[in-house]
Design a protein that fits this description.
By secondary structure, this protein is mainly β. The chain contains 2 helices and 10 strands.
């Protein structure tokens, strides 16, 4: 039997997120997708009445990360605060971009797959909703835009 016949897919609940050299525990990460747009084109000289499809730009999703709120834990606030205290995040320099890495881990906490997010910029910080009649965990989230993901 081949080695891959005995292997099982890796569960997705064991992962690690590193933002700006700070490891932060999140309960959920979404938006690790990229999509190639296509353009439809038809030359005036084409004999057939069919459009040709051409590769367009790569489109990335917004990465959304959610975590529980802990007493005196201002990590996400401090990361978000950098967009208006550190300088221009929308400049061409790398000064405003944060290193962001997500790793899927195996049962021994070793990386199975790593998503390295290029030129990540925090764009939204969402605090929890407050309800006096619910006994739910307080959850906060942060969103990042980026220019692509490298997978290792």
């Amino acid at each position: 039997m081949a080695e891959h016949d005995l292997a099982f897919p890796v569960p997705k609940f064991h992962f690690k997120v590193t933002i700006d050299d700070n490891e932060i525990a999140f309960q959920e990460v979404s938006g690790l997708d990229q999509e190639a747009e296509f353009l439809e084109y038809r030359s005036g000289k084409d004999k057939e009445l069919v459009t040709q499809k051409r590769l367009g730009l790569i489109k990335t999703s917004t990465i959304v990360m959610k975590k529980g709120i802990f007493k005196n834990d201002l990590k996400l606030y401090n990361i978000f605060k950098k967009i208006y205290t550190k300088g221009s995040y929308y400049s061409t320099s790398s000064e405003g971009h944060l290193p962001l890495q997500i790793q899927l881990l195996d049962e021994n906490s070793k990386p199975v797959m790593t998503w390295k997010v290029k030129e990540a910029v925090p764009i939204k910080l969402v605090g929890t909703d407050l309800k006096s009649d619910a006994s739910e965990i307080a959850i906060e989230s942060i969103e990042f835009v980026h220019t692509g993901i490298e997978i290792e």
